[in-house]
Amino acid sequence: MSTLSRFADKQEAIEAALSDSQYLAGMAAGWNAAQAEDPNAAFQKLRSAYAGYLKPIKDARAALQPTQGAKGGA
């Protein structure tokens, strides 16, 4: 196995671990917000803290959308 191949395997494992870590952090933040005196305010505070966090994904998705009037099919 080449060094590049081993690095790619490790990089994939690292990315998966980071994704899992983010999921768990979000779950904990949601739990804590639900336990707050005002859960709705706590949830809104969380949402505003990450307001632009998913923008790159939304932009990429929008760029992949078919243009108006385009016809699909094979």
Q: Can you summarize this structure?
A:
By secondary structure, this protein is an all-alpha fold. The chain contains three helices and no strands. Helix 1 packs antiparallel against helix 2.
Task: Name some characteristics of this structure.
74 residues; mainly alpha; 3 helices; flat
Task: Tell me what the structure shows.
This protein has helices spanning 3-35, 39-49, 55-64. With 74 residues, the chain is mainly alpha-helical. Helix 1 (3-35) runs antiparallel to helix 2. 0% of the residues are buried. The model has no long low-confidence stretch (mean pLDDT 86).
Q: Rg from C-alpha positions?
A: 19 Å
Number of continuous helical runs: 3
Structural class: mainly alpha
Strand-and-helix sequence, N→C?
HHH
Shape: flat
- Count the domains: 1
Strand content: under 5%
The biggest beta sheet reads: none
What's the arrangement of secondary structure elements?
Elements: H1 3-35, H2 39-49, H3 55-64
Helix pairs in contact: 1-2
